[in-house]
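for the writeup, i need someone to sanity check this before i put it in the appendix. the sequnce is what the collaborator sent (i think, or maybe the updated version? ugh). structure was predicted straight from it, no edits. if anything looks off just tell me and ill rerun, i have time this weekend
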Amino acid sequence: MSIPKFILGDNTEFPNAIYVIHTEFPRFIINLENDNVEWFEDFDAEDQKELETETETAIKDATAFYDSEVAKYDE
């Protein structure tokens, strides 16, 4: 099965939270309400350098994805 790189999510138990799920390495969910990140990966010291670079880019991309999706609803 092919899945998109980003998926939007919400939950009625957290009505103000907006989640973006990143499905590629490093896999995570970011709550755009408060920028909390929950990782699906276990990292070791060797991954640290790659993680820092990948994470910064992935979080910026997740935010841009959300902004793009919301703009489509406004059209």
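The chain has one helix and four strands. The two ends are 30 Å apart (CA to CA).
thx in advance!!
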